Each structure stands twice: as C-alpha cells, then as structure tokens.
C-alpha cells in the first residue's frame, strides 16, 4: 500500500510539473506581440511632388480698341489665322489677330463705342487652343523642389499625360484673402504632346518628379518612425525580438524610404509599430 501511495504521489508531482511547464510555455508565447513585417531591399525610389494646376491656352492675347466700332468680322468660337482683321473702327483702327487661334471673348458691337478699356475688359480675346499648358501656384516649400525640365505626369480623371516644367517665375506674388496674405510662385508645365479632351479653365492634378535614386537600400515607409529626439528609427526583428535601430534616411516616395546608414539588405522590419513595441519586445510575425 505504501509503495502504491508513493507512486501515486510521484505521478501527481510529474503531472503538476508538466502542467506548469505547459502553462509557462503558453504564457511566454502569449507575451509576444503579433506584428506585420517588411523587408529592407535594393530598390529604385522616385520622389514626387503632387499639386494641382489650371489648364491655360498655349498663347493668349487681349486686344483693345478705341473709338466707334464699324465692323466686327468674327464671333466667339471662330478659328482665325494670323493677321486676320477681326474688327474695324471709324477712325481706321483695326483689331488684327496676332497669331492663329480661337476667338474666346467679344465685348464690342457694331455701331457702338468701345468702352472696354475703361472697364478693364478686352475688346476681343484670342487664345491658341491648339495645345494647352498647366499653370501652377507653388508654395515656398514646393518652389524649392521644382526646377526647369523636370518630368511631370498630368492627371485628369483616368487620363494621364506626360509633360515638363517649362517656366518658373523669379519672384513670388502675394495675394490677399479672408484668411490673410498668401505668397505663391508661378510655374508652367507644358505637354509633350497636344492633349485631347481637355479644356482651358479646368483644374488638373500634377505629379512632378523631383528626385530619383536608382538601386539604393530602401524600406517600406510604414516601418519608419521617430524617437523622442525626433531621430528616424526602425524596429528590426532579430531572434524573435524587436531591436530599436537608429537609421539615416534619404529621399522617399509614397511607399519607400531610402536608407543611407544603419541597416542592411535582407533585414526584417516591423510595419506600423504600435506604442507597445519597445526595444527587446518579443514579437511574432502575423
């Protein structure tokens, strides 16, 4: 009987130890935080500046006359050739097309005096609509990133066109609004090919390629965060543990960030690390 009792006690102890080890193992596992991960790779990064612009004619000219109008030879929408006489005045003055284009405004009538100069309006407006340009108004930070001849993607709905930055004003212009004074620098984007189905006066989206880095070390932008000193850091997973790592960064796109120091290709990083992730936090991949 005594032997049976001893064996029974030993069996209970063994079972208790097994249960304890099992529970501890599960507890240890449950401490690990499940995380999404990405990998540091060699990539090509294209940095873009996204902004909105307004479609404008390739050329535009406001013509002004003086005196009584004798004859008007065109109507709005007419396409005219360069040097065509558009209107004649009783003093012999004529409004002549300075280039081939489309008549977009007429503010005079026959047998009526032309008073548009006093009203600040053109007598006749002619626009070259054979192609269009995009007028941009750049903020201070945007202006610093934009230079002549940069490639631009022009987007209107699901239509995309290619172009280049053709002009950039030397000085910014200040405008007054209800919210205060705003300064913007003008720039113009031209199309590589004349666009179809676009109309002057409407807005379009533009993406200006401001920088490109080929075959550089890059990480997903979701992995980048900053410490209390505003230094860029990432969390690299090593042996199931998150390691806080300071890095140096270069250019970035909407998906990738260039890594110039602090990490190497092939390392696994945590994406969108939560506040629970600290140095040496145990983690598991989702």
TrEMBL record:
YknX-like barrel-sandwich hybrid domain location: 66-126
Keyword Coiled coil: yes
UniProt subcellular location: Cell envelope
Sequence ranges assigned to domain YknX-like C-terminal permuted SH3-like in this UniProt record: 216-284
Keyword Mitochondrion recorded: no
Annotated TM spans: 6-23
Signal sequence extent: none
GO cellular component, one term: cell envelope
Keyword terms: Coiled coil, Membrane, Transmembrane, Transmembrane helix
Matches recorded under Pfam families: BSH_YknX (PF25984), YknX_C (PF25989)
Chief site of localization: other
SUPFAM superfamilies in the record: Single hybrid motif (SSF51230)
InterPro entries assigned: BSH_YknX-like, Single_hybrid_motif, UPF0194_transport, YknX-like_C
The name this protein goes by in its record: RND transporter
Organism the protein comes from: Enterococcus rivorum
């Amino acid at each position: 009987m005594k032997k049976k009792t001893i064996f029974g006690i030993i069996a209970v102890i063994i079972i208790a130890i097994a249960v304890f080890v099992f529970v501890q193992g599960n507890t240890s596992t449950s401490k690990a935080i499940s995380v999404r991960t990405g990998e540091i790779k060699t990539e090509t990064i294209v940095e873009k500046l996204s902004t909105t612009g307004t479609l404008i004619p390739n050329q535009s000219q406001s013509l002004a006359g003086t005196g009584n109008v004798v004859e008007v030879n065109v109507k709005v929408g007419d396409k005219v050739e360069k040097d065509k006489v558009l209107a004649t005045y009783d003093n012999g003055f004529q409004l002549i097309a300075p280039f081939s284009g489309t008549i977009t405004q007429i503010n005079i009538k026959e047998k009526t005096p032309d008073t548009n100069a006093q009203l600040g309006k053109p007598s006749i407006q002619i626009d070259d609509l054979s192609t269009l340009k995009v007028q941009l108004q750049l903020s201070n930070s945007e202006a610093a990133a934009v230079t002549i001849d940069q490639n631009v993607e022009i987007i209107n709905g699901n239509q995309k066109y290619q172009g280049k930055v053709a002009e950039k004003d030397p000085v910014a212009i200040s405008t007054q609004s209800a919210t205060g004074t705003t300064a913007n620098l003008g720039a113009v984007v031209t199309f590589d090919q004349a666009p179809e189905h676009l109309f002057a006066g409407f807005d379009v989206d533009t993406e200006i390629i401001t920088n490109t880095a080929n075959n550089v070390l890059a990480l997903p932008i979701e992995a980048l965060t900053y410490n209390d000193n505003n230094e860029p850091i990432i969390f690299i997973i090593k042996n199931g543990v998150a390691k806080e790592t300071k890095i140096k960064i270069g250019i970035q796109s909407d998906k990738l960030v260039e890594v110039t120091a602090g990490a190497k290709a092939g390392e696994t990083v945590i994406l969108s690390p939560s506040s629970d992730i600290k140095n040496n936090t145990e983690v598991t991949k989702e």
